[in-house]
Amino acid sequence: MSNTNQLMLFLDVVQQGSFTKAAALHNMDNSALSKQVKKLERDLGVQLLNRSTRSFSLTTAGEEILEQAIKLKDTINHIQFIADSYQSEPKGVLRITSPIYFGHGYLQPVISKFMKTYPDVQIVHVLSDKKNDIISENIDLAFRLSKLEDSNLIAKKIADTNFILIASNDFIKEHGRPTTPQDLIALPSVLYTNGDMTIDQLTISNTVGSPDKTTYKMKGNYKVSDVRTTISAVRDGLGYALIELSNLHRPLDELGLTLLLPEHEVSTRDTAIYAVYPHRKHTKLAKLFVDEVQAYIGTPPRWLVYLSETN
Q1: Which of 39, 53, 75, 149 has a 20 to 30 A CA-CA distance from 166?
Q2: How many CB atoms within 10 Å of residue 52?
Q3: Which residues share a beta bridge with 124?
Q4: DSSP, residue by residue, 30-78
């Protein structure tokens, strides 16, 4: 194995924070990875890591060499970007991460078509509602429903978000239909939480047509980390919920659900759906895939029909 490859392994060990996680990225045994890092240290003639039983720390030499390894990785990525631009047919490995429900409903149909169209492409799709560290986990492309924050990541907006309030018809029969935000927050809700965020606050216009909004604390005895389960719990009458419209897969009336306070404006929480890249010069393969996702979702996004088909 070349020193370049060994340097990339060393970089992964540091960024992952453990030999175990770095080895998993490369389908290697811990011992094999450790031997490669030790060989790198012998070849360079310096110690890079201070090792203990359960942890490690960088030596002074390791800190300086790590800085250069990061630059080397950027150079290698740029070389790949140049090579990709000359390829007539897309090929290679594309590592994607997405929220579970978004991946099921909107990415999998695109992936199926994409891989049939480009048989030399390999795709690794990590579905998780938590935000992965796409740099340390070697992710090429992430789809996120979030705020656009300043960072080293590059983001392209795929669609606007549309938050709605929903409840089951049986829930309305039991509790009555709320006509004001105050009526609503007095009722039980199903709260979505995934470790990174908890949707337990509702920001909504005070009256119909009013630009003024108030934020309310939602109450509920059921917190769940999966959107599908959230919707199922609402259908079972456990409470109302605040969800993003793209999480639906059929019109509300087909799901036995109804829209609450439809004439009030619900805050989007300053979020949108983004495709996020770790580098400004993203690969041709990643760009092509994002274009396919954008075309599949459409403008306006295809999920808006789920509201127009309700009564």
Answers
A1: 149
A2: 8
A3: 95
A4: HHHHHHHHHHHHHHHTS--EEE-SS-EEE-HHHHHHHHHHHHHHHHHHH
Considering just the CA atoms, what is the radius of gyration of the chain in Å?
24
What would the DSSP string read from start to end of 182-197? HHHHTS-BEEEE-SS-
Mutual orientation of helices 3-16 and 30-44 as an angle, nearest 10°? 120
CA 167, distance to chain mean position in Å, is 26
pLDDT at 220: 92
| Beta strand spans in the chain (E) | 49-51, 56-58, 92-98, 121-127, 141-146, 154-160, 163-168, 190-193, 198-199, 201-205, 213-217, 222-224, 241-244, 257-259, 272-277
Burial of 151 (0-12, 13-18, 19+ CB in 10 A): exposed
In this predicted structure, the answer to whether residue 20 has a pLDDT above a threshold of 50 is yes
Which residues does 214 contact at the CB level (< 8 Å), separation at least 6?
A: 181, 203, 204, 206
pTM for the model stands at 0.73
Instruction: Say which residues have a Cβ less than 8 Å from residue 43's Cβ, sequence separation at least 6.
Output: 3, 6
Mean pLDDT of 96-123: 95
Tokens for 171, please give them. 């829930």
3-state helix, strand, coil in the chain (%, to 5): 40, 25, 35
Strand order from edge to edge, sheet including 222-224: 198-199, 190-193, 222-224
Q: State how far the Cα of 272 lies from the Cα of 144, in Å rounded to an integer.
A: 8
Residue 21, φ and ψ in degrees, nearest 5: -65, -40
Q: Is the pLDDT of residue 280 over 80?
A: no
